[in-house]
Design a protein that fits this description.
DUF4905 domain-containing protein, 22 strands, 6-stranded antiparallel sheet, 1 helix, about 280 residues
Length: about 280
């Protein structure tokens, strides 16, 4: 089950697993993404910065942030992250900013979590393991983390060039439609959740299914309204487990799912150490 009629825009392979990708959220900033690589054997954390659309590598460094941290977004070239210093609970213990090209921490605020950000400001909320009441939102300068007073409301959008899928579970009223369509196109029974995005004439699905040996597999399907299959590609090794894989540390603030679309390019992981981008429509 592997078909592909789409040209590859770029492909990046690494020696360590890619745990998450974050993308530049400011429309006017240079388009790029940062890949967070991890090696649990060596407890090594690596940031790889690449330029869009060509996928050209700009830097690959070991940052000064601790291993138990997670990137949550990229604004104006600065990456924001959460620390996770609590060994018992997977909750953020600090919010900070790091330059992904040098790995140097610009600033860090303990016991704060990210709410929103833009090209100049960061909105955050004080976090507590014992106090469950909502604390007031505070605002910091993105460049140096200094507190500021502002009447500007937190932004709700993200980079207009980016699109992320919507996740549909078995409890969704749309699940029977998606389930029936995938069975017709791929003759496969999807498991529990499907990521879906519609871009121009392309219908993009990412789903899990179970092999005869009871191993979970993931796959990416790109078709159109004429039901032409443009790509049907496995996207990871088999998983010997009875449940879906999960990331216990954190999700990016903007965008989740197994793929995203940047302008005319779909970006996904074919396996844990490889990032691949396909052109969705022919390029000049």
């Amino acid at each position: 089950m592997s078909q592909n009629q789409l040209p590859i825009a770029f492909q990046l392979s690494f020696s360590e697993s890619v745990w998450r990708l974050i993308f530049e959220q400011v429309d006017l900033a240079p388009p790029r993404f940062v890949a967070e690589l991890r090696s649990h054997e060596t407890q090594r954390l690596t940031y790889v910065t690449a330029e869009l659309p060509p996928g050209t590598l700009l830097s690959q460094i070991q940052p000064a942030v601790p291993f138990h941290s997670a990137l949550v977004g990229l604004w104006n070239g600065l990456a924001l992250y959460h620390r996770f210093d609590n060994n018992r609970l997977p909750v953020p213990t600090a919010l900070g900013a790091v330059d992904p090209k040098t790995g140097q921490i610009r600033w860090e605020w303990p016991q704060h979590t990210l709410k929103a950000a833009n090209a100049e400001l960061v909105w955050a909320q004080r976090a507590s393991l014992t106090d469950t009441t909502l604390s007031p939102v505070v605002v910091f300068r993105l460049s140096d983390g200094e507190p500021v007073e502002t009447a500007i409301k937190p932004p709700a959008g993200h980079n207009s060039r980016l699109q992320f899928p919507v996740s549909y579970t078995t409890s969704s009223p749309w699940w029977p439609v998606i389930d029936r369509f995938l069975k017709k196109m791929g003759q496969i029974q999807p498991i529990e959740s499907v990521d879906y995005l519609e871009v121009a004439d392309k219908l993009i699905f990412s789903y899990y299914y179970r092999e005869p040996n009871d191993r979970l597999r993931s796959s990416l399907l790109i078709t159109d309204r004429r039901q032409t299959i443009w790509l049907h590609q496995p996207t990871g090794p088999g998983i010997e487990t009875t449940g879906l894989p999960s990331d216990a540390s954190a999700r990016p603030l903007v965008g989740t799912g197994s793929f995203c679309v940047w302008q005319n390019q779909l970006i996904t992981q074919l396996n844990s150490t490889c990032i691949t981008s396909y052109f969705l429509t022919p390029t000049p």
